[in-house]
Amino acid sequence: MAESDWLAAAFEEHRDHLRAVAYRLLGSVTDAEDAVQDAWLRLTSADTSEVENLGAWLTTIVARVSLNTLRSRRRRREQPAGDTWTVSQLNRQGGNAPASGPSGTSGMPADPADEAELADSVGVALLVVLDTLTPAERLAFVLHDLFAMPFAEVAAVLGRTPEATRQLASRARRRVHGSPSPDRAADLTRQHEVASAFLAASRGGDFDALLALLDADVELNADAATVPSGHPARLHGAENVARGAVLSAGRAVSSQLALVDGSVAVVFAPGGHLQVVLAFTVGSAGRITAIDVIGDPDRLSRLELAVLPD
User: Fold this and answer.
1) What pLDDT sits at residue 309?
2) Where are the domains of the chain?
3) What residues does 94 pair with on adjacent strands?
4) How confident is the model at residue 160 (pLDDT cuts 50, 70, 90)?
5) Are the C-beta atoms of residues 125 and 176 closer than 8 Å to each other?
6) Radius of gyration (Cα) for the chain, nearest Å?
7) Which long-range contacts (CB under 8 A, 24 or more apart) does 17-20 make?
8) Pick the CATH number of 182-307 from 3.10.450.50, 3.30.565.10, 1.20.1250.20, 3.40.50.2300
9) Judging by beta carbons within 10 Å of its beta carbon (0-12, 13-18, 19+), is residue 120 exposed, middle or buried?
10) In sequence order, what are the beta bridge partners of 90?
């Protein structure tokens, strides 16, 4: 077997583990695939003759790439709304994503079920908490607590002492275990399910499915920036709101689920520039009771966003 074939086979053995590590560090399928792709490129150009544990070596590469991405995100959060995404390539669509390894697959998973599986393995509530940690805290917690990497190895990635790394993980652990509450976690899960179903029904123009998700007395309030007339608009009642969603099916196709100020919402950001946010209020019966459509640049600039899989 040629060396290149051996490397490809060895990489494939570790791919699922690397994706799992990257996803928990980054909370984004796209960014996770990019980190795995980077590890593959570095593997093909590195001298691995003295690498004793290829899996650990690749995990370290993915961790370092992810750390750089996390640090870049924090810098972008200080910029205007269009650049506040926690996922650097949210809207990279149309088949232009690079191959993610020897198999030649695209940057996004071939099967949408892969995305759901990754999200379920972490949980929306945990993603919320992880996104509040500093990059160093998140890396220390994920690598040590979730993947049992020794503190000495985590410290090498962070460029800190093992004791300092231990303290970072401890601080992150307290925050993760301290919130959200079980009720909050259940609420986030319900929000995610309802918002995901609403987005899917909107994309398909499925009027009946939208009606099933909306409370009979649902109210939709849209600010002036989102209405062609330039004046705020209000829709009342499930049928009126459902019709509006059907008419917006084209925009829904390019929309994405996201955590917006800690709640699940739908965002429209063509080319990575945030234009519209649909913020939902979900009642105890699991139906949407209110939708706030936000397009005002000033309001958008104050939102904290973290993209989620559908």
Assistant:
1) 62
2) 1-111, 123-179, 182-307
3) none
4) very high
5) no
6) 21
7) 17/55, 17/59, 18/58, 18/59, 18/62, 19/118, 20/118, 20/121
8) 3.10.450.50
9) exposed
10) none
Cβ neighbors of 114 (< 8 A, separation 6 or more) are 29
CA 171 – CA 38 distance, rounded (Å): 30
Percent of the chain at pLDDT exceeding 90: 49
Position 168 scores a pLDDT of 94
pLDDT on residue 28: 77
Identity (one letter) of the amino acid at 92?
R
- Residue whose tokens read 């009606």: 211
Please give the structure tokens belonging to residue 203.
């994309």
Residue appearing with tokens 């990059």:
135
pLDDT tens-digit map of 222-264:
999 999 899 999 999 999 999 999 999 999 998 988 888 778 8
Query: What is the topology classification, in CATH, of domain 123-179?
Result: Arc Repressor Mutant, subunit A (1.10.10)
